[in-house]
Amino acid sequence: MPVRWLSPETLKKGEFSTKSDVWAFGVLIWEIFMYCKNDPFPGLTNQEARAKIVSEKEPMTAPEGTPPMVANVMKMCFTQDSSKRPDFEILLRLLSPKETPPTKDD
């Protein structure tokens, strides 16, 4: 399993949802601003990465040079409680405020 991209609720309870996808999006942001030089949680085993993810603390911080708004979005993606984690529409509005979110018919 791709432990390093999984959300706390997925690792603890096997739950997958769009909110767990938001968590993985936060990991993707980290990868992009690391220029894909490392896998997430470099230097850690999968067990150590899992422990960080379920620790109730922010599992990783934005790489140096990440624009502040993007770093803030990444941090929001790592909200431990999935019910408080933003959805993709909120993230789109933050990252691209002039963009109109797609409708369900799109």
From TrEMBL:
| Superkingdom of origin | Eukaryota
Q: Which residues form the Protein kinase domain?
A: 1-99
Determine if Nucleotide-binding is one of this entry's keywords: yes
Its keywords, alphabetically, are: ATP-binding, Nucleotide-binding
Q: Give an example GO molecular function.
A: protein tyrosine kinase activity
Gene3D superfamilies, per this entry?
Transferase(Phosphotransferase) domain 1
Q: Which SMART domains match?
A: TyrKc (SM00219)
| The protein, known as | Protein kinase domain-containing protein
> What is the originating organism of this protein?
Panagrolaimus superbus
Q: What is the lineage of its organism?
A: Eukaryota, Metazoa, Ecdysozoa, Nematoda, Chromadorea
